[in-house]
Amino acid sequence: MVNPPYQLANNLKHKEIVHGFFGAEGGYSSGIFESLNCGLNKGDDDTKVMQNRALVCKSMGVDRMVTLKQVHKSDVLVVDQNTPNGHEYDAIVTSSKGLLLAIQTADCAPILLQDVENGVVGAVHAGWRSAVLGIVENTIKSMESLGASRKNINAAIGPCIQQQSYEVGPEVFEAANSSEFFTNANKPNHYFFDLSGFLNNQLKKCSIQSILELRLDTYALKKQYFSCRRAYHEGLNGFGNQLSVIAIY
Fold first, then answer.
1. Helix, strand, or coil here: 199?
2. pTM of the model
3. What are 70-90's pLDDT values in tens digits?
4. Which domains does the chain have, with CATH numbers?
5. Peptide bond before residue 145 is cis, with ω within 30 degrees of 0
6. 3-state DSSP call for residue 191?
């Protein structure tokens, strides 16, 4: 099988970094998980999931991938070549070469970060809960603990549910503590939330100067991306996960 397609962020491109925002296309899974589902324990054949993950590694030219059990909190894991998979965190950073950091999403926002000068990379799973809990700031601090400098960090926000597709209730509006990234929905006391814009603003507050938003809507782009919300609206019994990955090469 040929390598599956993925998106690149121009501000992360560097000869010492590999990265990619993968979608739903180019893998082995079938049915509602067609075809590059990289989420284990979702109802898919886990053998095919591992084959899909191997395709991602092959595409990046890296043998070792680290994945998390994401729990919608704001804790960050620092990893090296000996770190096993499955820790309960929502962000991951490393200064180890040849270690592919992988974040799973299906509407939440993946954020990839790199400081090439100091040899540190990071990856973030940012749903609204982890976003309002401060996962962006926590990830930057964890990168700094490995020697990164905020002035050197580049960040890219990958494919995620976009504002026109993301209706939320008052709990999200109140937790965000800012009306700037909300517009009123037709349903009373409901809003459309700009998650990508909210995360961009948080990165700016952390003094990150190079920020790129891909602005690809996982809900609307049905053939290209998995979407938890779309699966729910269509009455499907499950959904897949796409991966966003980065490594020091």
1. helix
2. 0.98
3. 999 999 999 999 999 999 999
4. 6-248 (3.60.140.10)
5. no
6. strand
pLDDT at 157: 99
Tokens of 214: 């891909």
Exposed, middle or buried, 104 (CB in 10 Å: 0-12/13-18/19+)?
Answer: buried
In angstroms, how far is the first alpha carbon of the chain from the final one? 24
pLDDT at 103 exceeding the cut of 80: yes
Nearest-5° angle of CA 163, CA 168, CA 169?
150
Residue 185 has pLDDT above 80, yes or no: yes
Instruction: Burial-class residue 175 by CB neighbours within 10 Å (0-12, 13-18, 19+).
Output: middle
Kindly indicate the confidence band of residue 1, based on its pLDDT and cuts at 50, 70 and 90: confident
Furthest-apart CA atoms within the chain: distance in Å: 50
Residue 184 backbone phi and psi in degrees, to 5? -70, 140
- Measuring CA to CA, which residue among 127, 112, 120 is closest to residue 203? 112
Helices (H) and strands (E) in the chain, counts: 6, 14
Place of tokens 């970094």: 17
